[in-house]
Design brief:
9 strands, 19% helix, globular
């Protein structure tokens, strides 16, 4: 008889980051490509709620979400922008390959964005570093994050893109921060 759960799964805490981390990791999508709706994970329940409709005349240029079992200095899981051919349903998870990281300050606090490609999308199979993307694609991504909070009068500063190696280091660091914060000391050694 299967083990009965007495609680619902939580996408941040219950989905594994993946056996091949940091080369290939799982990502949970909160916001599909083309959306003006800013969905957000409720950290207590694991449910998604509508945080707001974007105030600016922009849409998310790619699928956007987070890496499970990661933690950043801002108290949130590691954000990820996933490049792939199609928009996907919110709260699904998929395998991604980190190719870079975009430095960002949101109201003065660090809020870097992991840039990844869908590991199982044939169009992005050969992309292993952000430097391989067309320059215009990087300009679009940067412009979106510069503008998406402008009409809310919130200050966002977008910095440069860094490559795949720094992205993988960021993934490993955020996985360690999660372990330190959420796993009992006894369980840490088993991982």
């Amino acid at each position: 008889m299967p083990h009965a759960r007495n609680h619902a799964s939580h996408p941040w805490h219950d989905i594994p980051p993946g056996d091949k981390a940091p080369e290939v990791i799982n990502a949970v999508i909160e916001i599909p490509k083309g959306s003006k709706v800013k969905y957000e994970l409720d950290k207590d329940t694991g449910m998604t709620y509508v945080d707001r409709i974007l105030y600016s005349s922009v849409v998310y240029p790619h699928n956007y979400g987070f890496i499970p079992k990661t933690l950043c200095e801002d108290g949130d899981p590691l954000d990820v922008l996933v490049l792939m051919q199609e928009a996907v349903t919110p709260m699904c998870f998929l395998r991604v390959r980190p190719i870079g990281i975009m430095g960002m300050l949101d109201q003065g606090e660090g809020d870097d964005k992991l840039i990844a490609v869908h590991a199982d999308d044939p169009e992005y199979k050969g992309i292993t570093d952000v430097s391989q993307l067309p320059p215009h694609r990087l300009k679009e991504i940067k412009r979106f994050f510069m503008d998406y909070k402008k009409n809310e009068e919130k200050e966002v500063s977008v910095q440069s893109f860094r490559g795949a190696e720094e992205a993988k280091e960021c993934v490993l660091h955020s996985l360690e921060l999660y372990k330190e914060q959420y796993l009992p000391r006894k369980s840490r050694s088993a991982l």
